[in-house]
Amino acid sequence: MKLWLLRHGQAEPQARRDADRQLTAHGRKEVLQSAGHLAGHALDGILASPYVRAQQTAELVREALGFAGAVGTAPWLTPDDDPRDVLRFLDGRDEQNLLLVSHQPLIGALGGLLVHGSRDEALPMGTASLAELEGDCPLAGLMNLVSLYHPGHS
Description:
Elements (H helix, E strand, L loop, with lengths): L1 E6 L17 H12 L8 E4 L3 H14 L6 E2 L9 H9 L5 E6 L3 H11 L13 E5 L9 E6 L5
Parallel strand pairs: 1-4, 2-3, 2-4
Antiparallel strand pairs: 1-5, 5-6
Organism: Pseudomonas knackmussii (strain DSM 6978 / CCUG 54928 / LMG 23759 / B13)
Pfam family, one: His_Phos_1
InterPro entries: His_Pase_superF_clade-1, His_PPase_superfam, SixA
């Protein structure tokens, strides 16, 4: 299984609610840079947090890749969700090439849990950072970090 973890691009600093914050022009550019690293990889699905900035990020990636499927909304991918809960939700999924679009601190902690077996060893995920993980299944400590891309730092 290949699992890609993508943090949303840079978002506006304020909105009525945190969930309503939208991507900035710079954030859109960052996302498109990261999407370029997904080119050539066949995705079975894209799941994103319901927050506006994550949905916008996922949609930009979907369009850039020409992915025919819809972006799925995963209510368990919000910033303060527990990465162990994410693993429980992933356990019942059939995709072998899945992109998750989420936020800090969840996305870094999830990567750390999958690779190191501990959410305390979080992956460093700046805005629009993309981690590629590979393993037999998404279980704590059983996936390998294949690559970690940070836009603007390649």
